[in-house]
Design goal:
Length: 194
């Protein structure tokens, strides 16, 4: 039973495709996700991480855990909810995010350290080489490669002590990402702020 669960765990294993499916249904999972995004008028996919990971993400994109290469003085805090060895999990912005906040409270994560990163699904689709997968029960989209910086739309930070540092880094490096403070944890999109 445990072996079957491992095989079907999309967070660690890409869906298996036969030869005909590989030839005739290129990026089938991605097309399915983009269809859901269009029908539900979803603007972003959300990735949650520790605020201390943001500078590494701004340097390299959101990498798979197996691809993280850290210097001795660097640390990458993993909560295991959306960050996996072989995939990065993203939630739809239309979800209540109940899974995440339930998990965060049960895990006793410091809510102030949570950063929400908004991924533009259209840009991600153009930049992705690998197909995506969706867990329709959990409403999580799994990406099996690094999410490039160019696909990141915004970063919402709840930790004021890190806000200015990250905003300064983005401005100094001329990175086209909106960085803002989110006191309540609700995401304030660019459209709402203009």
């Amino acid at each position: 039973m445990k072996k079957d669960k491992m095989i079907n765990d999309l967070s660690e294993n890409k869906p298996k495709k036969g030869l005909l499916k590989k030839i005739f249904s290129n990026k089938e999972g991605q097309k399915k996700v983009l269809g859901i995004i269009k029908s539900k008028k979803i603007s972003n996919l959300y990735f949650y991480t520790d605020v201390n990971n943001v500078l590494l993400i701004l340097e390299h994109g959101i990498r798979l855990l197996k691809d993280q290469k850290l210097r001795k003085d660097e640390e990458y805090v993993v909560w295991t909810y959306l960050e996996n060895e072989n995939s990065v999990g993203l939630e739809f912005d239309s979800s209540t995010r109940a899974h995440f906040w339930k998990w965060a409270s049960e895990s006793k994560v410091n809510i102030e350290k949570i950063t929400v990163i908004g991924i533009d699904p259209e840009k991600l689709a153009k930049l992705s080489k690998e197909d995506w997968a969706i867990d329709e029960v959990k409403n999580i989209v799994y990406i099996y490669e690094t999410i490039p910086l160019e696909a990141i739309d915004f970063i919402m930070i709840k930790d004021k002590s890190n806000l200015k540092r990250i905003q300064t880094y983005v401005e100094a490096n001329d990175i086209d990402i909106d960085v803002f403070y989110g006191e309540t944890g609700n995401v304030d999109t660019k459209k709402e702020r203009k």
